[in-house]
Design goal:
Layout lengths: L18 H9 L5 E7 L5 E7 H11 L1 E4 L26 E6 L5 E2 L6 E9 L10 H14 L2 E14 L3 H6 L17 H5 L2 H13 L4 E6 L5 E6 L2 E2 H21 L3 E3 L12 E9 L7 E2 L2 E2 L1 H21 L21 E3 L6 E4 L6 E4 L8 H17 L24 H9 L2 H7 L1 H19 L4 H7 L4
Parallel strand pairs: 1-6, 15-16
Antiparallel strand pairs: 1-2, 3-4, 4-6, 5-6, 7-9, 7-10, 7-11, 7-12, 8-9, 12-17, 13-14, 16-17
Helix pairs in contact: 3-9, 6-7, 8-9, 8-10, 10-12, 11-12
Length: 461
């Protein structure tokens, strides 16, 4: 047995595969393709499709590599300047895909296919510290050192269209037909119209090892959400990335398109609320004692609020992300917390074993590894310094005098780049890497001429 075959953590449930089960499925001809995948800076699954026999005979023992430019490109896969780990000057060398076999699963929406998610390491087997999965694992290790473990759930919204992705491209992503023509928030009639798609996504997600809760309509036309049970933070981030790619692939098979863009139009944006709680590594409650919140919980919340300005880049990584932050939109504009208050950036829900905080800042375009890592790093900042929790905001946070969340990517970039807390938690290499990612996106947007500019000024200026 190769060292690659030893899982570094337990398999979440029996719908995941063991190596021996995979061998049997391949031998019986039920699996002929193994996908090696990792999550890139933009939160996308990237990787290779390997023939199953090659995977067993070669890759399982010797591993496989990919170009390190995969963590140094923009969203259109253009090589860009400013990344110290990967450049023309460094020759664009390789990094190794290191499978985590606790993520091995079948993808039933694709013929005879299994997938394993990977960490990224250099050829000398040292971690690629800029990799999102490594960034999250580093924060989880910091929790473990304190006898703590993180559990999380992500709530992803999307808008579905009756157009294919190819048609959407040809229409320049405008004038598309949403699968619903009115607000279907909690509407059973509205969701039944798109139930063939939603059902396929739910069932294939369950078969891939995810614990599916259900589906519901949302407010924007054609907007829906499929919910999943919480899990340990790394499993949640892994599943988030698989679900997002899988949902797009299933939609394409239905001749439809879905978007996780944070703000597709002037109506409600697509959010990704992140629920997070801590337990002791022995399972003990840490956020609750007797009949109320623990001091640890309050310090953790205080730390997330104290770092929200400096860490917003990891919650809202794109130009478009900031279009969500509008008063009265159910997306937060105020750095404050409240009990079951959806106008605040941080909403506290549950009590006892279910006590958790909900970060309402991220949109559906978020990279889950980076956002959860930021929440843990911020919370640990609060715990380590025993930060005092400010008073609860009651009423309408949109009209309060509390500090506002950053309103542009440029402001968020400056906060992250200048953050001593970020450098202490993530390291200078990570801060420089993701600051450059923001610089690349800002420069690309500043060079673009938008539809708004043409419509507003072509004739009238």
């Amino acid at each position: 047995m190769s060292a690659h075959e030893v899982p570094r953590r337990s398999v979440p449930n029996d719908r995941y595969l063991t190596i021996e089960q995979l061998r049997t499925l391949i031998g019986d001809g039920e699996i002929d393709t193994v996908v090696l995948a990792f999550t890139d800076m933009q939160g996308r699954l990237q990787g290779k499709r390997l023939h199953a026999a090659y995977f067993l005979d070669v890759a399982l023992q010797s591993g496989t590599e990919g170009c390190n430019y995969l963590l140094a490109v923009d969203i259109e896969m253009n090589t860009v300047a400013g990344y110290t780990m990967s450049s023309w000057e460094r020759g664009y060398g390789d990094m190794e895909f290191l499978p985590d076999f606790a993520t091995l699963r079948r993808l039933t929406h694709l013929p005879a296919t299994a997938m394993v998610q990977c960490d990224l390491v250099w050829l000398d087997h040292t971690p690629v510290v800029q990799s999102p999965r490594t960034i999250l694992q580093t924060q989880l290790d910091r929790l473990t050192e304190r006898g703590l473990a993180a559990f999380a759930g992500t709530e992803l919204e999307f808008i579905a269209f009756d157009n294919s992705y190819e048609d959407a491209h040809d229409l320049r992503w405008r004038g598309l037909t949403p699968v619903n023509q009115y607000n279907v928030d909690y509407s059973l009639l509205g969701t039944s119209r798109v139930e063939p798609l939603l059902r396929d996504i739910r069932n294939h997600s369950y078969a891939a090892g995810m614990d599916v809760e259900g589906a519901k309509g949302e407010c924007n036309f054609g907007q829906h959400e499929i919910g999943f049970l919480y899990a340990d933070a790394l499993t949640t981030a892994d599943n988030h990335s698989v679900y997002k790619t899988q949902a797009k692939e299933i939609a394409a098979a239905h001749g439809k398109a879905i978007t996780f863009l944070a703000k597709y139009n002037e109506r409600e944006g697509n959010s990704c609320h992140i629920h997070l709680s801590l337990r002791g590594t022995d399972g003990a409650l840490t956020f609750w004692q007797d009949d109320g919140r623990s001091a640890t919980y309050d310090h953790f919340i205080a730390g997330i609020l104290a770092t929200m300005d400096e860490f917003t880049l990891l919650y809202a990584p794109n130009i478009n992300s900031y279009k969500r932050f509008a008063d009265g939109s159910f997306a937060p504009t105020t750095v404050a917390w409240g009990l079951d208050n959806r106008t605040c950036a941080v909403r506290l829900v549950g009590k006892g074993p279910s006590a958790r905080l909900e970060n309402r800042l991220p949109g559906a375009d978020v990279n889950p590894y980076l956002a959860i890592a930021a929440m843990i790093a911020g919370g640990l900042h609060g715990i380590d310094r025993e930060l005092e929790l400010q008073d609860e905001l009651t009423g309408n946070a949109y009209t309060s005098t509390h500090p506002r969340v950053p309103r542009t990517l440029q402001i968020a970039r400056e906060g992250f780049a200048g953050s001593a807390i970020a450098r202490a938690a993530f390291g200078d290499d990570v801060v420089a890497h993701y600051t450059n990612m923001a610089d690349v996106e800002i420069a690309a947007f500043d060079a673009a001429v938008t539809d708004w500019e043409l419509a507003r000024g072509f004739e009238r200026m």
